[in-house]
């Protein structure tokens, strides 16, 4: 299964290790909001369509991030993600879009970026990507292989890359996202406003992202978004996921 399929699953076979499965099966992010995600971790439908879209399971226990993000933050965040997923599914059922994959719905509706379907579908996709972009603190702290080399060539060092991510995030006004992306074999950082996503832009391959919406951090950091960014960039980013995305070289 390729990365594109993995992101549409509601589960994550891509890089879904045994450790991931163990974490998911007893995730304590088990409020009502995550009822769709709390079932058997083996129940991954590789052909899930947007009409059957489900909330992805967290690939870690919500308490595993507690040094940076509390379980309350993650549980509330998952409730919002579930709303995006539910609203997307409700709007496509019975339409010609029902059998499409999530990223295709995002691309199709991006022509009307204020439409409810685009906003919900893009946010469903962005959040699914975000949960894989972070991991328990200090696990996958740096890129390896080709991506490690290209980070050094592009930014000078991994620390410089981190600082650029933080600075770019600081320049986002209001809600949005910061992304590490590949385009034409080159590495760069981009930001998006609101529900904006790299999926909208042909040829741009997202490698990692961080959610800059207030709901992502407010319970723990109040209005201090930059402290959240500093901690998330330096301790939570899942560079193993970025390595895989870099190697996949797949457009969406
Ligand atoms: Fe969010």
Write the layout of secondary structure elements.
Blueprint: H1 3-7, H2 18-25, H3 71-92, H4 102-109, H5 116-133, H6 145-155, H7 158-170, E1 176-183, E2 186-193, E3 204-211, H8 218-221, H9 225-236, H10 239-248
Antiparallel strand pairs: 1-2, 1-3
Helix pairs in contact: 3-5, 4-5, 6-7, 6-10, 7-9
The structure holds fe (ii) ion (FE2).
Fe (ii) ion (FE2) binds at residues 77, 80, 127, 211, 213, 215-216.
Overview of the molecule:
The chain has helices at 3-7, 18-25, 71-92, 102-109, 116-133, 145-155, 158-170, 218-221, 225-236, 239-248, and strands at 176-183, 186-193, 204-211. The two termini are 14 Å apart. Mean pLDDT is 84; it is low at 8-47. Helix 3 runs antiparallel to helix 5 (116-133), helix 6 (145-155) crosses helix 7 and helix 6 packs across helix 10 (239-248). The protein is built from ten helices and three strands. Strands 2-1-3 form a three-stranded antiparallel sheet. With 252 residues, it is mainly alpha-helical. Fe (ii) ion binds next to helix 3.
- Widest β-sheet, arrangement of strands: 2-1-3
Largest sheet: 3 strands, antiparallel
Bound molecules: fe (ii) ion
What are the low-pLDDT stretches, counting only 5+ consecutive residues below 50? 8-47
What is the strand tally? 3
As a percent range, the share of strand residues is 5-15%
End-to-end distance, in Å? Answer: 14 Å
Q: Could you spell the SSE succession in H and E letters?
A: HHHHHHHEEEHHH
Structural class: mainly alpha
Estimated radius of gyration: 17 Å
Shape: globular
Helix fraction by DSSP (H/I, runs of at least 4): 40-55%
Quick check: average pLDDT? 84
Number of continuous helical runs: 10
